[in-house]
Structure formats: C-alpha cells, structure tokens
Amino acid sequence: MFAFFYDKLMGPLEKKWIASVRKKIVSGLEGNVLEIGAGTGANFPYYSKGKLERLASLEPNPYMLEQAKDRAKELDLPVEFYEGRAESLPFKDGEFDIVVATLVLCSVSDPQKVFKEMRRVCKKGGKIVLFEHVRTESKSLAALQDFLTPAWKRLCDGCHLNRDTGRYMEESGIELVKEKKYFKGVFVEYEGVNPG
Ligand SMILES: C[S@@+](CC[C@H](N)C(=O)[O-])C[C@H]1O[C@@H](n2cnc3c(N)ncnc32)[C@H](O)[C@@H]1O
C-alpha cells in the first residue's frame, strides 16, 4: 500500500520543497555512485548524467523497484538495479566514490549495520551524502515525535519519526563535513567523508 501511494502522498511536499533539496544534493555528484533505498527513483531526475560513471541503486521493496525502473527508462538514465537491504550490500569493499540515501535511515531496521556497510562499500576519502528526517533537538517536538512513532511506523512501512540518525553516523566513524538543518532540525542534510 505504502509503496503504491508513496509518490502521491509525497506530491505536495515534493513540489513545494523536497525536489529542490534533491536537486541540490545529487546534481553535482560525480563518478561511481550508489543510492540505497532509492524507492520509486525520486532522485533520478536530478542526477547529472554526464557526470556519472556509474549509478547503482538498491531497494528492498519490489513495487517501488518497478516504479524506479519505469522512471529511469522515461529519463533514459542508465541505472543498475539491485533488490536488497542496505544492512547487507551486494558490493565489494571500496566500490563506490559516493553513497547516497534520502529519507531512508528512518526506515532501516538496523542503522548501525547500514552505516557500517556504507563505509565498507565507499572508497577511502569517498563521500556519504544523506538527506533525512530525524529526532529534533527541540524537546517538545521530540516528545511529539516519540509519541507518534509507534502508530507512524505501522502506517508508513517502518518509518521512525524519532530516529537519531546524526548520532548513528557519528558513531560509525564517518567524518561529518556538512550538516544543514531545516524546520528546527526535523530534516537534515548530512555530508560525510569515509576515513577508510
Ligand atoms: C520514505 S522512502 C524514501 C524513498 C526515496 N529514497 C526517496 O527519497 O523518496 C524509504 C525507502 O527506504 C527503503 N528501505 C526500507 N528499509 C530499507 C533497508 N533496510 N535497506 C534499504 N532500503 C530500505 C524503503 O523500501 C523505501 O524505498
């Protein structure tokens, strides 16, 4: 259900704001890029084809994967598709220059494993680029996120409103080089470097 309605549910927020963030974070990416949890391929229109050597995408939900394949075809974007979970990536160590995830870490079952895998498949000095909604530093808002999360998780395919993604990233050893917060830190753009 969630997979089927995802693009429709996101539509208004996409048009108003998220599309501009997607464009900002993916349009400049170069080299061998892996996008995990690519969903319906919502970032695909914003990659610069000429800059990419390779774009691989991984997604566990077969319904979303099919929509992403259709989108890549429409855009004539050469994407390698993999069905799977980011906790166990089917790639060799250091295979990518950049690993991207947008609105994904909130939904994975084991964020620590995912960050470990991102580091493993990213080359030394490579980039980890994320755009996520996270647990805010505002105490009252965070309390609301904690309250809503159990129901939200059931409605939205395991999504946690209160995930402390920044902390997991820091604990993984990835060096944070950029952090841009939006809406009291409910949404955050992170850019990290893999120290190897
Ligand atoms: C809110 S959607 C975001 C989709 C897309 N990245 C975007 O920006 O629109 C969350 C995505 O994470 C995927 N996901 C959930 N658990 C995952 C996991 N363990 N590994 C990889 N992707 C996962 C879901 O299937 C879904 O496509």
UniProtKB/TrEMBL annotation:
Q: Name one GO biological process term.
A: methylation
User: What InterPro entries does this protein map onto?
Assistant: Methyltransf_11, SAM-dependent_MTases_sf, Thiol_S-MT
- Molecular function terms in GO for this entry? methyltransferase activity
CDD domains of this UniProt entry? AdoMet_MTases
What Enzyme Commission number(s) does the record list for this chain? 2.1.-.-
The signal peptide, as residue positions, is none
Keywords, ordered alphabetically: Methyltransferase, Transferase
Residue ranges constituting the Methyltransferase type domain according to the UniProt record: 34-130
Please identify the protein, giving its name as recorded: Class I SAM-dependent methyltransferase
